[in-house]
Amino acid sequence: MPFALIALAIGAFCIGTTEFVTAGILPDIATFFKVSIPMAGSLTSVYALSVAIGAPLITAITIKMKRKYVLIILMSLFILGSLISALANNFTILMFGRVVTALCHGAFFGIGAVVASNLVSEKKRASAIAFMFTGLTLANVLGVPVGTVLGQHFGWRIVFAVITALGIIGLLGIITLVPNLASNAGSSLKKELAVFKRGGVWLSLLITAFGFSGVFASFTYIAPLLTDVSGFLPGSIGGLLVLFGVGLVIGNTLGGKAADKALIPSLYGVLILLAILLVIFTFTAHYKIPAAISLFMFGILAFGTVAPLQMQLMQQASQAPTLASAANIAAFNLGNAGGVFLGGLAISEGFSYVSPNWVAAGLTTVGLFLAILNNAGLKNHRKTNIVSKCN
User: Fold this and answer.
1) How far apart are CA 342 and CA 348, in angstroms?
2) Region for residue 50 given its phi and psi (left: phi exceeds 0; alpha: psi -120 to 50; beta: otherwise)
3) What is the pLDDT of residues 103-136, one digit of tens each?
4) Domain that includes residue 23, residue range
5) Count of domains for the chain
Protein backbone atom coordinates (compact mmCIF):
# COMPACT_ATOMS: atom_id res chain seq x y z
CA MET A 1 0.00 0.00 0.00
CA PRO A 2 1.26 3.56 -0.75
CA PHE A 3 2.75 5.50 2.17
CA ALA A 4 0.00 8.09 1.79
CA LEU A 5 -2.45 5.45 3.02
CA ILE A 6 -0.40 5.11 6.20
CA ALA A 7 -0.77 8.85 6.79
CA LEU A 8 -4.51 8.61 6.26
CA ALA A 9 -4.66 5.69 8.67
CA ILE A 10 -2.78 7.74 11.29
CA GLY A 11 -5.33 10.53 10.96
CA ALA A 12 -8.15 8.00 11.14
CA PHE A 13 -6.63 6.59 14.34
CA CYS A 14 -6.66 10.02 15.98
CA ILE A 15 -10.21 10.80 14.96
CA GLY A 16 -11.43 7.29 15.76
CA THR A 17 -10.05 7.48 19.28
CA THR A 18 -11.91 10.68 20.12
CA GLU A 19 -15.10 9.39 18.49
CA PHE A 20 -15.29 6.10 20.37
CA VAL A 21 -13.51 6.81 23.65
CA THR A 22 -16.56 8.38 25.33
CA ALA A 23 -18.19 4.92 25.38
CA GLY A 24 -15.50 3.69 27.76
CA ILE A 25 -15.55 6.71 30.09
CA LEU A 26 -19.27 7.48 29.83
CA PRO A 27 -20.03 6.63 33.50
CA ASP A 28 -17.06 8.76 34.65
CA ILE A 29 -18.22 11.79 32.66
CA ALA A 30 -21.80 11.36 33.88
CA THR A 31 -20.62 11.21 37.49
CA PHE A 32 -18.22 14.16 37.18
CA PHE A 33 -20.81 16.51 35.65
CA LYS A 34 -23.74 15.00 37.61
CA VAL A 35 -25.76 14.14 34.50
CA SER A 36 -27.63 10.97 33.53
CA ILE A 37 -26.13 8.22 31.37
CA PRO A 38 -28.40 9.12 28.40
CA MET A 39 -27.40 12.79 28.78
CA ALA A 40 -23.72 11.84 28.80
CA GLY A 41 -24.48 9.69 25.75
CA SER A 42 -25.48 12.86 23.93
CA LEU A 43 -21.75 13.62 23.67
CA THR A 44 -21.77 10.86 21.07
CA SER A 45 -25.05 11.74 19.35
CA VAL A 46 -24.28 15.47 19.09
CA TYR A 47 -20.80 14.60 17.83
CA ALA A 48 -22.40 12.45 15.15
CA LEU A 49 -24.85 15.19 14.15
CA SER A 50 -21.98 17.67 13.91
CA VAL A 51 -20.11 15.27 11.63
CA ALA A 52 -23.22 14.96 9.46
CA ILE A 53 -23.44 18.74 9.10
CA GLY A 54 -19.72 19.40 8.71
CA ALA A 55 -18.94 16.63 6.22
CA PRO A 56 -20.80 17.94 3.14
CA LEU A 57 -20.45 21.61 4.13
CA ILE A 58 -16.66 21.64 4.54
CA THR A 59 -16.17 19.34 1.54
CA ALA A 60 -18.25 21.67 -0.65
CA ILE A 61 -16.31 24.73 0.52
CA THR A 62 -12.94 23.10 -0.14
CA ILE A 63 -13.84 21.22 -3.35
CA LYS A 64 -11.31 23.20 -5.44
CA MET A 65 -8.47 23.10 -2.90
CA LYS A 66 -5.55 20.70 -3.00
CA ARG A 67 -6.52 17.72 -0.90
CA LYS A 68 -3.33 17.74 1.17
CA TYR A 69 -4.02 21.32 2.31
CA VAL A 70 -7.59 20.42 3.19
CA LEU A 71 -6.44 17.46 5.27
CA ILE A 72 -3.92 19.68 7.11
CA ILE A 73 -6.66 22.22 7.92
CA LEU A 74 -8.98 19.46 9.12
CA MET A 75 -6.40 17.94 11.46
CA SER A 76 -5.60 21.39 12.86
CA LEU A 77 -9.30 21.83 13.62
CA PHE A 78 -9.29 18.42 15.27
CA ILE A 79 -6.42 19.46 17.57
CA LEU A 80 -8.25 22.64 18.59
CA GLY A 81 -11.45 20.79 19.47
CA SER A 82 -9.58 18.16 21.47
CA LEU A 83 -7.78 20.86 23.47
CA ILE A 84 -11.08 22.61 24.27
CA SER A 85 -12.50 19.29 25.49
CA ALA A 86 -9.49 18.67 27.72
CA LEU A 87 -9.82 22.09 29.37
CA ALA A 88 -13.64 22.09 29.71
CA ASN A 89 -14.90 23.04 33.17
CA ASN A 90 -18.57 22.27 32.50
CA PHE A 91 -20.62 19.92 30.37
CA THR A 92 -21.56 22.62 27.83
CA ILE A 93 -17.93 23.49 27.05
CA LEU A 94 -17.09 19.80 26.76
CA MET A 95 -19.94 19.46 24.29
CA PHE A 96 -18.65 22.50 22.35
CA GLY A 97 -15.19 20.94 22.11
CA ARG A 98 -16.74 17.75 20.78
CA VAL A 99 -18.62 19.73 18.13
CA VAL A 100 -15.47 21.52 16.96
CA THR A 101 -13.65 18.19 16.73
CA ALA A 102 -16.54 16.58 14.87
CA LEU A 103 -16.57 19.23 12.15
CA CYS A 104 -13.33 17.84 10.69
CA HIS A 105 -14.35 14.20 10.98
CA GLY A 106 -16.69 13.69 8.04
CA ALA A 107 -14.72 15.72 5.52
CA PHE A 108 -11.52 13.93 6.52
CA PHE A 109 -12.95 10.47 5.95
CA GLY A 110 -14.90 11.54 2.87
CA ILE A 111 -11.90 13.11 1.13
CA GLY A 112 -9.58 10.45 2.51
CA ALA A 113 -11.71 7.64 1.05
CA VAL A 114 -11.54 9.22 -2.42
CA VAL A 115 -7.78 9.75 -2.12
CA ALA A 116 -7.28 6.16 -0.92
CA SER A 117 -9.34 4.68 -3.75
CA ASN A 118 -7.38 6.66 -6.35
CA LEU A 119 -3.99 5.50 -5.07
CA VAL A 120 -4.56 1.87 -6.12
CA SER A 121 -5.97 -0.12 -9.02
CA GLU A 122 -9.72 -0.35 -9.47
CA LYS A 123 -9.83 -3.94 -8.20
CA LYS A 124 -8.26 -2.94 -4.87
CA ARG A 125 -10.23 0.21 -4.08
CA ALA A 126 -12.40 -1.29 -1.34
CA SER A 127 -9.27 -2.74 0.28
CA ALA A 128 -7.55 0.66 0.11
CA ILE A 129 -10.52 2.30 1.82
CA ALA A 130 -10.48 -0.48 4.41
CA PHE A 131 -6.75 0.13 4.97
CA MET A 132 -7.43 3.79 5.75
CA PHE A 133 -10.21 2.74 8.12
CA THR A 134 -7.72 0.41 9.82
CA GLY A 135 -6.69 3.51 11.75
CA LEU A 136 -10.25 3.74 13.00
CA THR A 137 -10.25 0.09 14.05
CA LEU A 138 -6.85 0.33 15.73
CA ALA A 139 -8.24 3.26 17.68
CA ASN A 140 -10.60 0.76 19.24
CA VAL A 141 -7.86 -1.80 19.89
CA LEU A 142 -5.41 0.70 21.40
CA GLY A 143 -6.81 4.21 21.72
CA VAL A 144 -10.18 3.51 23.33
CA PRO A 145 -9.06 0.85 25.86
CA VAL A 146 -5.99 2.85 26.88
CA GLY A 147 -8.14 5.98 27.08
CA THR A 148 -10.66 4.13 29.23
CA VAL A 149 -7.96 2.97 31.66
CA LEU A 150 -6.40 6.44 31.78
CA GLY A 151 -9.80 8.01 32.39
CA GLN A 152 -10.63 5.61 35.21
CA HIS A 153 -7.29 6.16 36.97
CA PHE A 154 -6.43 9.79 36.22
CA GLY A 155 -9.74 11.40 35.24
CA TRP A 156 -11.44 11.99 31.91
CA ARG A 157 -9.43 15.18 31.15
CA ILE A 158 -6.22 13.25 30.60
CA VAL A 159 -7.98 11.28 27.85
CA PHE A 160 -8.63 14.38 25.76
CA ALA A 161 -5.15 15.74 26.53
CA VAL A 162 -3.59 12.57 25.11
CA ILE A 163 -5.94 12.78 22.09
CA THR A 164 -4.67 16.33 21.48
CA ALA A 165 -1.12 14.99 21.37
CA LEU A 166 -2.22 12.21 19.01
CA GLY A 167 -3.74 14.86 16.74
CA ILE A 168 -0.38 16.61 16.48
CA ILE A 169 1.23 13.31 15.47
CA GLY A 170 -1.51 12.81 12.88
CA LEU A 171 -0.92 16.31 11.48
CA LEU A 172 2.81 15.66 11.14
CA GLY A 173 2.04 12.37 9.38
CA ILE A 174 -0.13 14.10 6.79
CA ILE A 175 2.43 16.86 6.21
CA THR A 176 5.21 14.29 5.79
CA LEU A 177 3.59 11.39 3.94
CA VAL A 178 0.67 12.63 1.87
CA PRO A 179 1.77 13.86 -1.58
CA ASN A 180 0.82 17.33 -2.70
CA LEU A 181 -2.10 16.13 -4.78
CA ALA A 182 -3.72 18.36 -7.37
CA SER A 183 -7.04 19.99 -6.62
CA ASN A 184 -10.23 18.71 -8.20
CA ALA A 185 -9.66 20.82 -11.29
CA GLY A 186 -11.94 18.67 -13.42
CA SER A 187 -14.72 18.90 -10.90
CA SER A 188 -16.97 21.65 -9.62
CA LEU A 189 -19.57 22.07 -6.94
CA LYS A 190 -22.27 21.95 -9.62
CA LYS A 191 -20.95 18.65 -10.97
CA GLU A 192 -20.60 17.19 -7.49
CA LEU A 193 -24.15 18.22 -6.59
CA ALA A 194 -25.53 16.79 -9.85
CA VAL A 195 -25.07 13.20 -8.63
CA PHE A 196 -27.66 13.86 -5.92
CA LYS A 197 -30.33 14.00 -8.62
CA ARG A 198 -30.09 10.22 -8.77
CA GLY A 199 -32.51 8.31 -6.58
CA GLY A 200 -29.97 5.52 -6.16
CA VAL A 201 -27.55 7.90 -4.44
CA TRP A 202 -30.16 8.90 -1.84
CA LEU A 203 -31.18 5.29 -1.30
CA SER A 204 -27.52 4.36 -0.82
CA LEU A 205 -27.22 7.08 1.83
CA LEU A 206 -30.25 5.65 3.63
CA ILE A 207 -28.72 2.17 3.50
CA THR A 208 -25.61 3.53 5.21
CA ALA A 209 -27.59 5.47 7.82
CA PHE A 210 -29.80 2.55 8.86
CA GLY A 211 -27.29 -0.21 8.21
CA PHE A 212 -24.68 1.28 10.56
CA SER A 213 -26.98 2.96 13.11
CA GLY A 214 -27.38 -0.31 14.97
CA VAL A 215 -23.67 -0.34 15.79
CA PHE A 216 -23.83 2.86 17.85
CA ALA A 217 -27.27 2.15 19.27
CA SER A 218 -25.63 -0.76 21.06
CA PHE A 219 -21.99 0.27 21.45
CA THR A 220 -22.61 3.66 23.08
CA TYR A 221 -24.12 1.95 26.13
CA ILE A 222 -21.73 -0.99 26.19
CA ALA A 223 -19.95 0.03 29.43
CA PRO A 224 -23.08 0.05 31.65
CA LEU A 225 -24.31 -3.13 29.91
CA LEU A 226 -21.09 -4.99 30.71
CA THR A 227 -21.00 -3.82 34.33
CA ASP A 228 -24.69 -3.83 35.32
CA VAL A 229 -25.92 -6.77 33.21
CA SER A 230 -22.90 -8.98 32.55
CA GLY A 231 -21.40 -8.39 35.99
CA PHE A 232 -17.92 -7.26 34.94
CA LEU A 233 -15.99 -4.91 37.22
CA PRO A 234 -15.41 -1.36 35.87
CA GLY A 235 -11.69 -2.10 35.68
CA SER A 236 -12.38 -4.86 33.15
CA ILE A 237 -13.97 -2.54 30.57
CA GLY A 238 -10.65 -1.50 29.03
CA GLY A 239 -9.65 -5.10 28.35
CA LEU A 240 -13.07 -5.94 26.94
CA LEU A 241 -12.85 -2.98 24.59
CA VAL A 242 -9.51 -4.32 23.35
CA LEU A 243 -11.35 -7.54 22.50
CA PHE A 244 -13.99 -5.52 20.66
CA GLY A 245 -11.29 -3.55 18.87
CA VAL A 246 -9.49 -6.69 17.68
CA GLY A 247 -12.81 -7.77 16.20
CA LEU A 248 -13.09 -4.42 14.42
CA VAL A 249 -9.66 -4.84 12.80
CA ILE A 250 -10.53 -8.33 11.59
CA GLY A 251 -13.96 -7.27 10.32
CA ASN A 252 -12.63 -4.19 8.57
CA THR A 253 -10.04 -6.23 6.67
CA LEU A 254 -12.44 -9.02 5.76
CA GLY A 255 -15.13 -6.52 4.75
CA GLY A 256 -12.77 -4.76 2.34
CA LYS A 257 -11.61 -7.99 0.71
CA ALA A 258 -15.17 -9.32 0.43
CA ALA A 259 -16.41 -6.07 -1.11
CA ASP A 260 -13.64 -6.19 -3.73
CA LYS A 261 -14.72 -9.69 -4.75
CA ALA A 262 -18.53 -9.41 -4.52
CA LEU A 263 -19.90 -6.09 -3.26
CA ILE A 264 -23.64 -6.77 -3.06
CA PRO A 265 -23.47 -10.31 -1.58
CA SER A 266 -20.95 -9.12 1.02
CA LEU A 267 -23.22 -6.19 1.94
CA TYR A 268 -26.24 -8.46 2.35
CA GLY A 269 -24.28 -11.03 4.31
CA VAL A 270 -22.73 -8.69 6.84
CA LEU A 271 -26.02 -6.87 7.55
CA ILE A 272 -27.87 -10.16 8.07
CA LEU A 273 -25.20 -11.49 10.43
CA LEU A 274 -25.01 -8.19 12.34
CA ALA A 275 -28.77 -8.14 12.98
CA ILE A 276 -28.71 -11.76 14.15
CA LEU A 277 -25.73 -11.16 16.43
CA LEU A 278 -27.38 -8.14 18.09
CA VAL A 279 -30.41 -10.27 18.94
CA ILE A 280 -28.20 -13.04 20.33
CA PHE A 281 -26.26 -10.45 22.38
CA THR A 282 -29.44 -9.53 24.27
CA PHE A 283 -29.40 -13.04 25.77
CA THR A 284 -25.65 -13.68 26.10
CA ALA A 285 -25.15 -10.30 27.84
CA HIS A 286 -26.30 -11.90 31.11
CA TYR A 287 -23.28 -14.21 31.26
CA LYS A 288 -19.65 -13.09 31.31
CA ILE A 289 -17.96 -15.45 28.87
CA PRO A 290 -20.81 -15.50 26.30
CA ALA A 291 -20.99 -11.71 26.59
CA ALA A 292 -17.25 -11.38 25.86
CA ILE A 293 -17.53 -13.70 22.85
CA SER A 294 -20.54 -11.75 21.57
CA LEU A 295 -18.65 -8.47 22.00
CA PHE A 296 -15.78 -9.83 19.90
CA MET A 297 -18.15 -11.01 17.16
CA PHE A 298 -19.96 -7.66 17.35
CA GLY A 299 -16.67 -5.93 16.54
CA ILE A 300 -16.05 -8.15 13.51
CA LEU A 301 -19.50 -7.56 12.04
CA ALA A 302 -19.70 -3.87 13.00
CA PHE A 303 -16.75 -2.83 10.84
CA GLY A 304 -17.33 -5.52 8.28
CA THR A 305 -20.03 -3.13 7.05
CA VAL A 306 -17.82 -0.07 6.51
CA ALA A 307 -16.07 -0.79 3.20
CA PRO A 308 -19.17 -2.31 1.52
CA LEU A 309 -21.33 0.64 2.61
CA GLN A 310 -18.77 3.20 1.41
CA MET A 311 -18.15 1.42 -1.89
CA GLN A 312 -21.83 0.98 -2.76
CA LEU A 313 -22.26 4.77 -2.54
CA MET A 314 -19.07 5.57 -4.46
CA GLN A 315 -20.20 3.30 -7.28
CA GLN A 316 -23.48 5.20 -7.49
CA ALA A 317 -21.57 8.50 -7.72
CA SER A 318 -18.46 7.35 -9.57
CA GLN A 319 -18.31 10.40 -11.90
CA ALA A 320 -18.11 12.92 -9.04
CA PRO A 321 -17.50 11.00 -5.81
CA THR A 322 -15.91 13.54 -3.44
CA LEU A 323 -19.00 15.29 -2.07
CA ALA A 324 -21.05 12.07 -2.25
CA SER A 325 -18.34 10.28 -0.25
CA ALA A 326 -18.48 12.99 2.40
CA ALA A 327 -22.27 12.77 2.39
CA ASN A 328 -21.97 9.06 3.06
CA ILE A 329 -19.78 9.78 6.09
CA ALA A 330 -22.53 12.18 7.15
CA ALA A 331 -25.04 9.34 6.66
CA PHE A 332 -22.92 7.09 8.87
CA ASN A 333 -23.07 9.68 11.61
CA LEU A 334 -26.73 10.58 11.20
CA GLY A 335 -27.35 6.89 11.68
CA ASN A 336 -25.05 6.96 14.71
CA ALA A 337 -26.94 9.90 16.23
CA GLY A 338 -30.30 8.26 15.61
CA GLY A 339 -29.09 4.97 17.04
CA VAL A 340 -27.67 6.63 20.17
CA PHE A 341 -30.93 8.57 20.68
CA LEU A 342 -33.18 5.55 20.25
CA GLY A 343 -30.97 3.35 22.41
CA GLY A 344 -30.93 6.01 25.13
CA LEU A 345 -34.69 6.46 24.78
CA ALA A 346 -35.21 2.77 25.52
CA ILE A 347 -33.13 3.13 28.70
CA SER A 348 -34.94 6.33 29.70
CA GLU A 349 -38.29 4.56 29.33
CA GLY A 350 -37.26 2.15 32.04
CA PHE A 351 -35.96 -0.77 29.99
CA SER A 352 -32.68 -2.44 30.92
CA TYR A 353 -29.26 -1.78 29.40
CA VAL A 354 -29.92 -4.76 27.11
CA SER A 355 -32.75 -2.91 25.35
CA PRO A 356 -30.50 -0.88 22.99
CA ASN A 357 -29.50 -4.18 21.34
CA TRP A 358 -33.12 -4.80 20.31
CA VAL A 359 -33.27 -1.29 18.87
CA ALA A 360 -29.97 -1.89 17.08
CA ALA A 361 -31.14 -5.16 15.52
CA GLY A 362 -34.28 -3.45 14.17
CA LEU A 363 -32.33 -0.57 12.63
CA THR A 364 -29.85 -2.91 10.95
CA THR A 365 -32.71 -4.94 9.49
CA VAL A 366 -34.19 -1.81 7.93
CA GLY A 367 -30.80 -1.14 6.30
CA LEU A 368 -30.82 -4.67 4.89
CA PHE A 369 -34.27 -4.26 3.32
CA LEU A 370 -33.21 -0.94 1.78
CA ALA A 371 -30.12 -2.61 0.30
CA ILE A 372 -32.29 -5.32 -1.26
CA LEU A 373 -34.64 -2.66 -2.64
CA ASN A 374 -31.74 -0.65 -4.06
CA ASN A 375 -30.20 -3.66 -5.79
CA ALA A 376 -33.56 -4.63 -7.29
CA GLY A 377 -33.88 -1.09 -8.66
CA LEU A 378 -30.41 -1.27 -10.21
CA LYS A 379 -31.24 -4.55 -11.94
CA ASN A 380 -34.47 -3.12 -13.37
CA HIS A 381 -32.60 -0.02 -14.56
CA ARG A 382 -30.02 -2.18 -16.38
CA LYS A 383 -32.75 -4.25 -18.01
CA THR A 384 -34.52 -1.11 -19.18
CA ASN A 385 -31.29 0.24 -20.71
CA ILE A 386 -30.68 -3.07 -22.52
CA VAL A 387 -34.21 -3.08 -23.96
CA SER A 388 -33.87 0.55 -25.04
CA LYS A 389 -30.59 -0.16 -26.82
CA CYS A 390 -32.07 -3.20 -28.59
CA ASN A 391 -35.04 -1.14 -29.80
Assistant:
1) 10
2) alpha
3) 888 788 878 877 777 777 777 777 777 788 778 7
4) 3-390
5) 1
